[in-house]
Amino acid sequence: MDYKLKRTLTNTVLYIVLIVVAILVLFPIWTAINISLLNDSQVAQYPPQLVPTQFSLRNYAHALEQAPLLRYLFNSVTQSTLVMLGQLVTACLAAYAFAFIDFKWRNVLFLVFLATLMIPWEATIIPNYLLIKKLKWDNTFQGLAVPFMATGFGTFLLRQFFLKIPKELHDAAVMDGCGSFRFLITIVLPLARPALGTLAVYSFLQTYNQYLWPLLITNDQTMRTVQIGIALLQDEERFMFNTVMAGVVFVLLPTFILFIFSNRQLIRGLTAGAVKG
Amino acid sequence: MKGSKQVFVLLSALLVLSMLLNACAPAATPTPEPPVQQVAPTLPPVVEEPTATPVPAAEGITKMTFWHSMSGDVGGKAIPQMANAFNSSQDKCYVVYTYQGTYDDSLNKLKAGLQSGDTPSVIQLFDIATRLMVDLDVATPVQTYIDKEGYDVSDLEPNVLAYYTVEGQQYSMPFNSSTPMLYYNKDAFVKAGLDPANPPKTFDEFTEAARKLTIKDASGNVTQYGGAFAVYGWFFEQLLAVSGGFYTDNENGRAGLATKATFNTPEGVAILDWWKAMYDEGILANYGRTTVDTRSAFIAGQTAMILESTAALRGLMDSSKGKFEIGTAFLPRPNEAAYDIAGTVIGGGSVWIIKDRPQAEQDCAWEFIKFLASPEQQAYWQTMSGYFPIRKAAYENQLSVDWRATYPQFQTAIDQLHAAPNNTFTQGGLIGVFPTARQTIEGAIEEALAGKGTSQEILDKAAETITLAIEEYNVSMGLTP
């Protein structure tokens, strides 16, 4: 009885905390959707209206009229996907070398890798830009994506995960005549799914949120990305929050889809690991 | 083993959470304040024709690029419309317009592009980039073309031209020009027993009106503030100019190279004292640096008087429709006498021709700039954007006549422009580090409102900071007075 009461109490507290956190997390998203549905006079009300009273896609139409968001969306998703795949491939290979292969200067090299994390992106943006210009990669997808395909952070993340895979597994596999590549593909990667998922989501969102780089290397309307599209909606003198929010909701969609999809993957990976451990 | 796995799980969870927050970042950018809104643009039908799909450039035509920083309907509709009109008006030049983010973004992109040859033929930049653009020596002054062609500038507004004139040369052509004015709620004036036809003219009158306009509820909470100023460096610059104060030495850097900031003179101190006294009395609200927030509060009836750009007029008029009537007035001055000696400074932006482009492109750039400055285009521009036309003939255009009939309050902007004498007060400060200076001033205003010292002390400190920045800038550019 006492135990049962205690458990109910703990659960109640837990759920209250979870509900509060959920509200905190969901509120900005709700606000965006809400404002995107308000009409022009409702949005100027005080106190603000928290629930839309009508369902009208007028603001969405207006946003699409002001900026070619569909094209921008396609560009952003393509760029982010390319970067995500690139980072997964390079980080897996590098992390594997650092975790399983013994070679001279391994630790020093790894430190150098880590050191790149400390160089702010702003410091390298101009040299990168000049290089891309020289390669005539401006206004192209490779220009948007290639500079981000190698990642010190991703290598670090995966290496730490790979280190936890028992060395015996590696030795046994080698004993049976398994090469490094096969070991990576058939044994390491399936085990590392949660880490891979984390890195994938992280790199996708990082790229998706870029503003300065796409602005620098594209001039062509057809190669611009969504964040520039959102900036284009923000009229300084007649700030139309409902139009901007309609654009924002539109731009959030791919991120949502990615998140819902990868969330299941992540949790499955995490819990599978936890039970076995 | 198990412990480290848990750490990993925890880390991943944290990472996911941070990503979630990241993902929300764009949604969270605008403040949850009640936002300003406008009703569907009420434009004369002539200009409402949909922005035509751009015609592709014909063979052998000179292609040129135009970088602009106009967003919303202005950037999404007006700029394309004007560019398309230019392209179909003649068959030698073809303009390709690109939105390059804010003026700051655009300027940064230009600086980066100078090294790689990625430059536009024409770039639109804000007023305060003028000195920097001249010192970077990247532009062909439009004066060159004015002289070569004998282009008649007599119809252009002299005060507007003067802002972009450096060392006797017209460097860039004004394009989008604005000044700040006082916006007030006429209904609130009537309720407070004030005459809505007679808005405050001086600082003292403003304080008096603000006091009467402030309404408190039974428990003593303010439900309507008399006024509100956004903490915006531009307003301080403008108040200083109308007070007859110089931002820097050598008459705002117009008579010679500016070497130090001088806004800590009695004129500047008086502005901050006035601002702070009203704030301390609880009759002037502070909604922070973002002007949008102050506008929202005005529309929501939380405050009865605000300072805002002339370009905000249409948005304010449209969103206040059915709520209250808006009145506009000149920016208040310290005293009546100040009206004769000084006036507001031109704000907004101008268009520059970049000199490392091929000659043919630059020639086309000039053609495009002339097109933008034509009465028809300026009238259209005024109706679409709320900036005032840079030439007088535009007012006779039917579009402009109709527009002013819809928004009679705009006349104040034109009168204020014409009332301002053309002297070094109204030409405004000319320094290369203006964006930094503006932020410093904004910090100073915040400090003053928070009571972190007297206005004199705070302005002295800010002036010192800006003087240092000016000195560094002058050295880095190799400028000597």
Q: Summed up, what is this model?
A:
The complex is a heterodimer of chains A (277) and B (481). Chain A has 277 residues and is mostly helical.
Instruction: State the helical fraction of chain A.
Output: over 70%
Largest sheet of chain B: 6 strands, mixed
Percent helix range of chain B: 40-55%
CATH class of the largest domain in chain A: Mainly Alpha
CATH topology of the largest domain in chain B, which one? Answer: D-Maltodextrin-Binding Protein, domain 2
Structural class of chain B: alpha+beta
DSSP strand content of chain A: under 5%
Structure description:
The complex is a heterodimer of chains A (277) and B (481). Chain A has 277 residues and is an all-alpha fold. Chain A has 2 domains: 2-56, no CATH class; 60-276, Orthogonal Bundle (MetI-like fold). In chain A, 74% of the residues lie in helices and 0% in strands. Chain A is built from 13 helices and no strands. Chain A has helices spanning 2-37, 58-66, 69-100, 106-115, 121-134, 141-145, 152-163, 167-175, 180-191, 193-208, 212-217, 226-233, 241-276. In chain A, helix 2 (58-66) packs across helix 13 (241-276). By secondary structure, chain B is α+β, with helices and mostly antiparallel strands. Chain B has 2 domains: 46-178 and 347-419, 3-Layer(aba) Sandwich (D-Maltodextrin-Binding Protein, domain 2), CATH 3.40.190.10; 180-344 and 431-476, 3-Layer(aba) Sandwich (D-Maltodextrin-Binding Protein, domain 2). Chain B has helices at residues 2-28, 72-89, 103-116, 130-136, 142-149, 158-163, 186-191, 203-213, 233-242, 249-253, 266-281, 291-299, 313-320, 338-341, 359-372, 375-385, 398-406, 410-419, 424-427, 434-449, 455-476, and strands at 62-68, 93-99, 122-126, 139-140, 165-166, 169-170, 173-178, 180-185, 215-216, 222-224, 227-228, 284-285, 305-309, 326-329, 347-354. In chain B, helix 2 runs antiparallel to helix 16, helix 16 packs parallel to helix 17 and helix 20 packs antiparallel against helix 21. The chains are: A mainly alpha (277), B alpha+beta (481). Chains A and B meet through helix 1, helix 5, helix 10, helix 11 and helix 12 of A and helix 1, helix 2, helix 3, helix 12 and helix 13 of B.
